[in-house]
Each structure stands twice: as C-alpha cells, then as structure tokens.
Amino acid sequence: MISIEASTMPEPAAARAYRVLEHMIVTLELAPASFVTEGSLIDRLALGRTPVREAIQRLAWEGLLDVRPRAGIAIAPLHPGDWLRVLDARRGVEVVLARSAARFVTREAADLFHEAALAMQKAVISGNVLAFIQADKALDDALALAADNPFAARLAAPLQTHSRRFWFRYKADTGLAESAEHHVALIRSILDGDEEGAAKDAKKLMALLRGHAEVAATR
After folding, report:
1. Tally of CA atoms within 13 A in the half-sphere of 167 that contains its CB
2. pTM for the complete prediction?
3. Cα separation, 182 vs 29, whole angstroms
C-alpha cells in the first residue's frame, strides 16, 4: 500500500480512499487499461467496503475508472491525443480560478500556497517526481480553496487529475524544474492579488502543458 502524508485534520474514510486511489491511478501504480476488482482494492487500501465503493463511483464519474459488471473495474487507458483534449477543456476554467484566487485569497489559502511551492521546489532539488505530483495536487487544492468558486473548482478537479496523469506518463522524467517555475509564478501573482498577472500565468502554464501534450501526441 502506498504512503501519502495525512492531513493534521481527521479525514473521512471515503475521502482518504479517493485520495489514495487517485494517486495510484495518476502515478500508474494502477496501470492504464488494466483490470482490478473491488475486493482487491479493498484489500490494498484496508479502509472498508463502503468508503472504497464510494471512491470507485466518484473516480468512475470522473472518467478514471470504468466499472464493468461481471468483468471488473477497468483503469482508464492513456491515449496521448486525449491530453490535448483535456487541456483544451481545462484552460478556461484555470484562468477563472486564477483570477478569482487572486481576488479572494485568504490567509489559510496563502499558507497552503506557500507550503505547496516549498514542497514543489524541494521535489525539484531532490528529483522526486512522486513528491512533485503530491505538491502539484496540493497547489490545485489551494487554488480551489482560494478561488471561492465551488462550481469552477468541481469542474477543474477531474481535468487536473487527468492532466497530472498524462504529465507523469509523458513528461515527468524531464519536466520538473520548468513546470515548477510556471507554478511558482502563478502562486506569486495570486498572493500579490494580481488578477491579470494570475490569469496570464495560468495561460502560460496551460500553454507549457499543451506543448508537452503536442509532443506526446506525435510519438
């Protein structure tokens, strides 16, 4: 079973099941296009049938799993061209979140941004891709909190997860420093309350990712 640092606050079992399963899918511990069973996931997570089932249902709705009666649970395949589709859908909502976060960021959210930036920089220095992935997820969570727009955040979350999974598969071996630079620039603009700057930095980050996706699609 993988280890992910737990929050200081108690975490509901279903939320933890979702978080761990999402991480396993993003990092390809659950291989694309492979099959698993509900029972095997319950055994691996040791969190009980109900929370694991809830997590499976949520991940299926997000397109990361496909529950097939009598056949098992299929892990979503990875087709390079789909990364472009994910980013085309994600770009606009990321700009909305960035602008809103710069306008409404609270001290709590600011602290989370600082922690995510520090974790991301440490991951770059150590070359720890898994730590970088976790820092990127933490940044997205901070962005959702700061933006104070649950509708945009709920739309963005599965797109962010899909994009993170593609990035891990096709770019993680060479893209840490460049990606961290763009993320930290976005954080600075948000913490400065610069709505226009945050929007521009969000667009630059999406453009960077799209460039990676275009390369992956031609392999």
Report:
1. 27
2. 0.90
3. 27
